[in-house]
Inverse folding.
């Protein structure tokens, strides 16, 4: 088993980044696992998020074998217990009507963390299957029960590593810039000007680099910062000026709520506005219907 491995889809060479990879049957078969700590409450965005599983459906290279290939693989989506019932219901519908196309065996399982008296009040990580099966009979049997793991046994080394090689959610990147990098660039709560290179230089110093189990090494990437800065401009918290890669940050503006919640709300509403412009009637109706529930 390995974390954050690097795979490529055969044919397209697209990068595929599962969270956990399992190999079994003498490394002839495998499982790609995607772990979600939370999922969007709006169906339109949930479907967009789960489209990632379609990439896992193709033939991928990067397995821990001499030729980087195996004969067959399954897919596991591990969702939080608070999301799992809704995810199973939506995935079932989308697989049936073709909105989600997954050609491999797909299993949806739920995870939760509870405190157990049996383990001296320690935290216990529970996993239970909810939908479908994998190609591994032993794992399917385990999924029919609660798989119990002591959290302390899952963590062998702890580092406060805020970024890995996997692109972070846009709102997460914005929050880290606003809460960590911008105050270090400018100590006062007022508007200031900076460029991408200044942000990156400080980010390299502030955030420790990530090292994977397969020898990968990664730091904050310029395109992640550039995307975040573009979104700051779109929601009125920055503006691009004439100097290349330079922005004026409206850091003097007060945000009257938790900034991470604020960025999620603003980017979500912006995406919904863009979705309404798309010529897909069904998607529009669904997004508009779910907006009322979200708001």
């Amino acid at each position: 088993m390995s974390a954050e491995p690097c795979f490529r889809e055969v044919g397209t060479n697209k990068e595929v980044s599962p969270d956990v990879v399992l190999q079994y049957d003498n490394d002839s078969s495998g499982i790609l696992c995607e772990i979600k700590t939370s999922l969007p409450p709006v169906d339109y965005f949930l479907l967009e998020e789960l489209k990632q599983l379609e990439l896992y459906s193709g033939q991928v290279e990067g397995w821990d074998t001499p030729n980087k290939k195996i004969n067959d693989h399954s897919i596991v989506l591990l969702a939080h217990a608070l999301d799992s019932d809704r995810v199973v219901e939506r995935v079932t519908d989308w697989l049936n009507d073709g909105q989600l196309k997954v050609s491999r065996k797909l299993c949806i399982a739920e995870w939760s963390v509870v405190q157990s008296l049996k383990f001296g009040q320690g935290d216990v990580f529970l996993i239970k299957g909810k939908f479908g099966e994998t190609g591994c009979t032993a794992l399917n049997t385990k999924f029919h029960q609660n798989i119990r793991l002591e959290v302390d046994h899952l963590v062998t080394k702890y580092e406060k590593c805020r970024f890995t090689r996997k692109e972070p959610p846009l709102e997460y990147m914005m929050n880290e810039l606003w809460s960590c990098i911008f105050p270090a660039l400018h100590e006062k709560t007022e508007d200031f000007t900076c460029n991408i290179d200044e942000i990156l230089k400080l980010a390299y110093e502030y955030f420790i680099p990530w090292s994977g189990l397969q020898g990968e090494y990664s730091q904050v990437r310029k395109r992640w910062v550039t995307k975040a800065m573009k979104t700051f401009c779109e929601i009125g918290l920055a503006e691009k000026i004439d100097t290349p890669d330079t922005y004026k940050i409206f850091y003097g503006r007060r945000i009257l709520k938790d900034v991470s919640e604020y960025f999620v709300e603003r980017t979500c509403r912006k995406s919904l506005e863009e979705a309404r412009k798309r010529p897909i009637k069904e998607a529009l109706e669904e997004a508009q219907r779910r907006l009322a529930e979200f708001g």
Observations:
- The chain has two domains: 2-154, 170-269.
